[in-house]
Structures are given as structure tokens and as C-alpha cells.
């Protein structure tokens, strides 16, 4: 296992290096003058020139990239141009919010999508199958921001069950935290559940046609045992793959969802940084998202062997 992990990490390093180049280049291609973020629009040309020298903005792009990469390698992501706050500290404060949102969204997606997919495959062509497929297609078609607005209108404005926005730290008030996280998690989780349902249905249909499933039924095993122990376990590999590959899309959904529900997470930090031309904030947020996707893909590979011992590293 250790040689496999070392090999995977070695493969990720060149990709991570090219990602840093792309992130730095795209960030510096954003329109606007970063000195406006720092000084405002009324600053004199002399003040702007002094700030450019202070932050190294007068240096050529390759020099600034090497300097930034060297600092990142030491764990220094720089300071926000607008607030002068350490970007590493900002990431540490906002990452837990996004991780909690992602975990709850995946939990909702799996809790809804997998049972629906199993039922749709078990009763293929029935009303259950048609209804599950229609709901799945409808959920995928609805944008995150529109789903969030609909949930706010229903649960906050009409029914008054949930607060429309805001955030409370989980450790400060677990109940209040979960109350505020329900709608954001549902916004992402319902769309994610549709993808999980469709993949579960397709994988289960393929597995249910195998000879060993007919053998298990011929032995007199209950249908529940056949579906869960024999069919689902062998259908998990494609399902886990889809979940792992959708983590990037989930983080993209967090950018919109955190903005709609005013959550102080990584996605909102990225949006604020883009609007304010805060280059260190943008670079730090995107770089963490890339690292998170790498880590999830590695974890997905490791889960293959846990779910199916026939899969070798």
C-alpha cells in the first residue's frame, strides 16, 4: 500500500505544479488594478507606485510567480490586499464551514440517491422507476441558486421553519448550526442525489443480470439480502467513482450556495476575492480546492480495495 501511495503522490506533483501556473496566470489576467482595492480610487499615482513596490506588483510576472510559489511551499499564502489579514488564517477559519457543507450534502445525496436507485433498478419499468428518473432529471436541471431561493421561499418565508441565512459555529451551538445548514445542504445534496441515483440504478441493473444473482435467488435468499449483500456491494465501485469525480462540482456548487445563504465558507471567500481583485485570497482559495480534489481522488482509489478485495493496488 505504501509504494502505491508514494506512486500516486509522485504522479500528483507535476499536475499540482502546472495547476499553480494556471492559477497564478488566470488570477493575474483578471481586469482591474489591485491598488484600487488597497488604496481606493482617489489615490495619487505616487501612492499607487509605492504600493506596487511594497507588494512586488512592479516585478515581472515570472518573478512574482516564483516568489509566490516559494512562499506557498513554506505554508505562507500571503496577506489579503484589502484587509491585510493572513490568507492562511482566513483559509483555516473558512474551510471547516465548506467541509461541513460538503459532508452534509454528500450525506443527503447518498441517503436519497442510493435507495432511490436501488428501488428503480429493482422495479425497472414500473411507476417507481419512472417517477425516480423524472425527479432525478428535474433536480439536475435546477441551478443551485434557484434551488436555494425556492427553499428560502418555502421553509423561511412561507412556513417559517428555518432561518433564511447566517451561520453559527458547530462547537458554539450544534443545534443552531444544523438548523442553518439544512437548506444549503439540501440545495447541493438534491442535485448530487440525482447523479447518485442514476449511477446506482445503472450499476444495479448491470449487476442484477449476472448469473450469481440468479444463483442467490435460486438458493432461496430473501430479495433484501440479494439486493444489499450480493448486488449492491458489487455495484459500489462505479457509484464511489461518480461520488469522487463530483467533488469538484460540489465545491463549485458551494461557491454559489454559500453566497446565497451568506455562509462564511471558502466559496464565498473566493467570490469576494474575485470581486475585490484580491489576488492572494483568490490564489489561496483555488489552490486549496485543487488540493482537496486531489485528496478525494486518492481516497476514492483507496476505497476501491475496501469495497472490493479483488481490486489490487
From TrEMBL:
GO terms for molecular function: dipeptide transmembrane transporter activity. Residues 95-300 form the ABC transmembrane type-1 domain. It is found in: Cell membrane. GO terms for cellular component: plasma membrane. Pfam families: BPD_transp_1, BPD_transp_1_N. The chain crosses the membrane at residues 12-30, 101-121, 133-157, 177-196, 235-261, 281-304. It is a multi-pass membrane protein. Its main location: membrane. InterPro entries: BPD_transp_1_N, MetI-like, MetI-like_sf. SUPFAM superfamilies: MetI-like. Keywords: Cell membrane, Membrane, Transmembrane, Transmembrane helix, Transport. PANTHER family: DIPEPTIDE TRANSPORT SYSTEM PERMEASE PROTEIN DPPB-RELATED. Belongs to the binding-protein-dependent transport system permease family. This is Peptide/nickel transport system permease protein.
